[in-house]
Structures are given as structure tokens and as C-alpha cells.
């Protein structure tokens, strides 16, 4: 039963113990929480708020059933437009060239800020609210290639003090410009600049400090491109959401608004480019037709005058009905041949890669029409690539090769079509000759007249056809719409998206708890000291005592009816120790030792002996530390008083001559260590040592022996066989964890049967091994102060 009392519990995780270990450092945790939350508070004070502006646009895409699928009323005139692809529009909106146009047009590469106090965020100015305007003398593209910052200080009503900061080869360089008057140019990295006060300049700006940050167009474009996003609403709708992030809500709104405008202008320009080229081609051909038509009409007029004709004779109408149908075919074929010939001539005149071919002229050969459409598409793509770069762009060169290879194909197809039309015309003329034989009796002048009329009809028909096409192109140009329609105009939410105050405060709070907990955890990992009784309980040896740390400079706490926390701890030690000692007729020999000096074994031995004596037992305390004896000093005697060393060295000296009787608050007998011998280890092995313990056991109920530290010398090892119980004193926060291996080894090697730990100087409030808080149920006794609650520190 006695052994079972000290069996160790199962190795389970004790959550309460873990929490208690960290909560005893609650002041540090509270301090870290205060610091991290305070840091978060000041960070949020100086960090500018970031807002997001959003807008929604509807993409006119027939595939999604959006606007434009039912309004193409000019499809019968060959003016139908291609469908806009949703993902293509996303890429167009995000294109660098488009964003760069917006940045330059709105001046978003420059930003004026007013520097405030260290605990407040800077003020950002935009457009009409700014107190200053900056005018560059150089309005060319050259000024957009530089990055610099103007620090404007000592602001007054007449001038300012300016410094220029630039980044050259990764190093920040500051150049002093000095005092500059308003409306006067001064030199910067981007050329001459002057500052103009606006009507928004007030006395509040006097003496303040401003920063004017000017970015290159490329850097500003990258910044706005990174803050801009385009997303689809869902897969079933042709609606895009445009969003821009920044510190100024109005700048975000203007950016999105201007982006949509620029996008629409580009889309309309692209759609009208072919129409413009077609109109130019038609106008050019109409001038030629007008001259040819004028010549035919003059010939017709002269012929009528010469032959005195007023009206065409009616007598051949019946014979000419069938001939008339063929004539119509001949006219139509001649028109097609003329158009093919015109296109061949036009192609031969083109000596560049940026001229579009006229479309929708009415050519019957669909393969030729398809090649013309493909040719125009390649030209437009090539023109787009060279807008933002040079003509040596690899993609543009590749497209030029495709254009060059396609141009001969178009010419060859036109010539093939022309040859086909010639064959058709030959066949029609052959058919017409049959009917001409039937009207052989028509006068020669009438046949000549019909030839003139045919030429006149061909020219008139071609002229009217081209006139109609020109009007159709003008109508198409006037009716061209963009690819998107605005659903929701740009709108900025009043709540900033960054910094996220709740998340930052929560993170700061968690960090404030995690940092000290992590530090405590790391400290515990690196800690090689014994801190609590739980660490001793992890061994296979029992723990019979946990003596709290005392703030009083006293050696004896077990005095009379003393009911202090420490006195109760010694009573608990006494009770637990008795469970380990077997009942026998003679007295019990209890050794007290430790690994190193200054662990309180003598202090513990004195109080243990006194608390045993208070139970009406005969107790003697023997000082057996022959190398560094302290018992005499603690009990108020001179060092070198006769003791065990004298008894072992002098056989004439009797044991009774050494025994000191109780006095004052001491209730036990005691024997000092005696004079420090030169050979303590050999002295302890003499036969008189056994005689001493035999005699003491016959006289006393408990023989408490204060021995030397076991990790330093072998003195205690040589007399360990006389002990019934070894109390191994471990001082909390002083003894190293490796030191508790000594008693474990003694137990394993069988050098003593019964060993138990006594934790001395514990700073933990909880007993930890079964008897709860010291003083439970007793209130405040003796001179010990009432313990504070944990939350009061």
C-alpha cells in the first residue's frame, strides 16, 4: 500500500497546468498585448486609407444575347459588324497602351501630398482641391521619362524652399534647389518647372511641408495597371466589372471613367477605319467615271445631232426583247470586270503595309471578298503593333510578310475573276449575235446609236452604283457604336478596403499573446533548471515534499504551533516521509543530500528534524558534511565545535560527549560535523561510523543526517548503506535537470532502496502533487502575508 501511494499518474496532457504555467506571466502577456495593439493603433493613424471604385459595363456580344444582336439594320448593305468577344474586351481594358493614355491625359503620374505630424496620415491632393499647380516648360514626351520628388518646405505667400530627391543607380540623392518664388521657373530633372498658387491655397498651408512626386509615364502606368482589375460577373452574362484601388476616391473614379471613354473611342476608330478607306476609294473612282460618262454623253449628243434623231424607233421592240435581257447580263458582267480591273490597278499602286483595301464593292467572287477582309485585318493588326513601338517590331514584321504574301494572291484572284468574266462576256456576245442577225434590217445609224447607249448605260449604272456605296459607307460611319455600354458609372465605397482595421487589431492582439507565449515556450525549451515539482514527478522516484520559497531571512520555520505555508509544507513532508519508512523497533535513519551545494539540504534537515520532534518523537540531527559544514553556523555555534569528525578520529571520545541538547525553539538533539579533516572520505569508512549509527538508532526514533553533496564528492556514497531513506533535496530555479539523474542511478544500481525528492525554494503557488494549495483552510498564519489573486499579480 505504501508503494502504491507514490505511483506516478499516466502521462496525459494537463491543459490546466499548461494554462497555469503561462497565466502566471500574465503581466508580460498584458504588456505585449498593449504594445502590439498600440503599435497597430499608431500604424493605422499614419497609414493612408485605400479605397476601391467600381463600374459595370455591358459588352455588346451576340453570343451572349446582349445589346446589338437585333439592331444591325444594315446587314443587307454589307455593313454588318463582327461580334465582340468578352475575354478579348477584358484584355483590351487591361492593355498597357490604353492605361498609359488615361494616365497621361489625367496627369495621374504626379501626386501632391501634405506631410502631417508623425501620428497622422498625409493629406493627398487631387485636381481642383490642390493648393499648388505645377507647370512644365517642356510639354513633349521627354519629360515623362524621369522620376523625382520635390520636397516643398517653408511655405509662405511669396516663395517656398525646395529640395529635389532622385534615385540614381539605386542611391537616393538629395539636391537643394533653394528658395523659389511662385510663377518663376526652376530646373528639375524633367526640365524647367514653375509653381502656381491656386485659389485653394489658404493660411493653413503656411509653414507646412509638401511632397510633389513625379513619376515617369512607364512607372505610373505600371502602378495603375497593378491597381486595376477587370472581372466577369458570371459566365452567363456579358457584363464586366471594372475596379481601381487608390488613396483618392475621385482619382479612382476618373481613371475608370476615362478608361471607358478611351476604349470606346478606339473601338469606334477601328470600326470606321475600313469605312473611311472605302469611301476614299469610291470617291477616287467616281471622278474617273464622271469623266468617262461625260465623254459618252458628248458622243451620244453629237451622234443625235448628226443623224437628226429625236426618239428611238419602236419597230424593233419585239425583236429586241430577248436581246435586251442579254444586254443586261452584258452590262452586269462589264461592271464586274471594271471593278476587278479597278482593284487590280489599286493594288498595284499600294507600296506600303498600312493602306486598307476597299470592301463591300459588290464583287461577285466571294473568295476575293474573303481575301480582302483578311488583308484588312492583317493591316489593322500591324498598325496597332507599331503604334506603341517601331516598325521593326517582330510581330509587325511577321504581319508584313503575311500581307506581302496575301497581296499577290488577291491580285491573281482578281485577274482570274476578270478572265472568267471575259469568257462569260464572250459567251453572252455570242448569244447576242444571234439576235442581232434578226435586226439586220435596222439602219446602220440605229445600231451605232445602240452601241453608244450601251456604253452610256454602263457608265451611268457604275456611277450610280458607286454613289450608292458611298452613301452606305457614310451611313455606316455615322451609325458606328462602341463595344460596351455603361450600366453603373464609377462609384467609390466610403469604407476603405485597406488597411483592414479589425483584422489588424485582431492580428495585433493575437501577436501580443503569441509573442510572450512563444518566448516563454522557447525559454522553457532552453531552460536546464528544475522549476517545479511536476518536473520531478516525471521521474520514477516519488516526491515527498515541496517547500515554498520564503521571503524572510529565517532558518527555522517549524516552531511550535506555527501554521505558516512553509511550516505546513514541512508537516506534509513529515507525513509523506513516514509512508516510505517501514515500522521497526529501532529508529529510522534518514539521509538528506543534494547534487551540489547551496540547495538547502541543511536548512531542510533542521526544519524536518524540528517538525518530527514536535510529534513527541526523539529526534537527533547529525551533521555529516565533513567538507563544508554549516550546521553549527545555522544553530548559532562556533565552527570547529566537537563533532562527528572528532568522534571518528579519536577513539577515546564518546558519542554522548558530542550530543547537544535542545534549546529555545529547537526541540531535537544534534551533533555537529566537527573539525574539517584532511581525509573525510577515509574517515567516514572507519568502523566507529557503524557503531555511531547503531547507538543512535537505539536511542532515537529518527536520525536525520545532513550529508555532503553527492555530485561533487563520494563521501555520502560511502555511508549510504546506513540510511533507511535518502531525501534528495533539489532547489527550484537552481539545480540543473541533469542533476536528478544521480538519485535515479543510485536507485537503478541498487545502492539504496528508498529515495525520494524534496523540492526546496519552490516559487509555484500550487503544490502540484496531491495536496493542493498550501494553507488551504487555514487562512493567514504566522508572519506570512495573504497571497494575492493571480489577476492582481
TrEMBL record:
Q: What broad class describes the main subcellular location of this protein?
A: membrane
Record has Kinase as a keyword = yes
Q: Name one GO cellular component term.
A: plasma membrane
Can you tell me which residues the record assigns to a coiled coil? 411-438
Q: Where is the Tyrosine-protein kinase G-rich domain?
A: 451-524
What keywords is this UniProt entry annotated with? ATP-binding, Cell inner membrane, Cell membrane, Coiled coil, Kinase, Membrane, Nucleotide-binding, Transferase, Transmembrane, Transmembrane helix, Tyrosine-protein kinase
Compartmental location = Cell inner membrane
GO molecular function per UniProt: ATP binding; non-membrane spanning protein tyrosine kinase activity
Entry protein name = non-specific protein-tyrosine kinase
Write the lineage as a comma-separated list.
Bacteria, Pseudomonadati, Bacteroidota, Flavobacteriia, Flavobacteriales
